[in-house]
Structures are given as C-alpha cells and as structure tokens.
Amino acid sequence: MRKTLGAIFALLLLTTGIVAFTPQAASAAAARNPSLIINGYVEDGCLSANYSNSYIADCGSGSRFHLWRRVALPLGGFRLQNNGSGLCLAMNEGLDVFVTNCSSATLNPYQDWQAAANSGTWTNIRHRASGACMSANGMAKDTYGVRGGCNFDADGRKWLFS
Question: Would the pLDDT of 143 be above 80?
Fold first, then answer.
C-alpha cells in the first residue's frame, strides 16, 4: 500500500512539473536553451543590459551582461532574458526599450518578441504587441523602437543571434 501511494505521489510530481525545479532539470533546460549574443549590424556592438537599462556595447569585453537567453513562449515568439542581471528586455507604448523583471505570464505585451524578416543569418527583432522593430542608434549607442513595422533593409534594425 505504501509503495503504491509513493508511486502515485511520484507520478503526480512528474506530471505537474514540480520536479522541473531540480538542479539537474535546470542544467538540462540551460543546455537546450544556450546563452546567445545579439550583435547589431551597423553598430558592430552587442545588445547589453545592466540592472536598470539596455544599451549597445563593444562585444569584445566578454561581459556576462552581453549574454541573453532566448526563452520560447508556448504561443510562439520568445522573451530575451539577460544572463548578467536576470532581467527581461521589454518595450513600452512609447517604444522605449528597457529591462524589467521577467513576467511569468504566458502573454506579456511588453516582453514578448519574435524574429522577423530573416535574410541569411541576420534578422529583425519585432515587438509582438506593437509590431515595431528594435533598432540601434549608432550615435547614442542606445536601443529604441521604430514605428511603422519592420524594414529589413534598414541596417540599424538587423541583428545576429550568435
């Protein structure tokens, strides 16, 4: 009787995903979803973030703030979580790009992104709610949104996931 109850309890834990928070499961998830660097086409700089904002920085410094995890969403698209700060990239109604605590919701209009207009290895990063693409401003070394959708030919809007 005890073995049967123990087996049922173990099965419940496995099917509800509670076991997914073990160190082994976390390592397996990290292996399936490796860190990436997001490099800008015009900038030749990397999308970076600290604990308060996002910015473009030189890729060569090897900073953990240059590393991002592309977290797939159940309904398509992804969130971009910074390895250094643990924060997620977001965009507000004013099309300002910033970092904030990652949402646990399935849909979050500020934090949901999708790749668009692939051309070889370069892509646009489109904000799911607004349809705007993330762009790099070479003068300010800052990131910002662009109204009017994505134009792949605009160099400031091309990014490389590597």
Answer: no
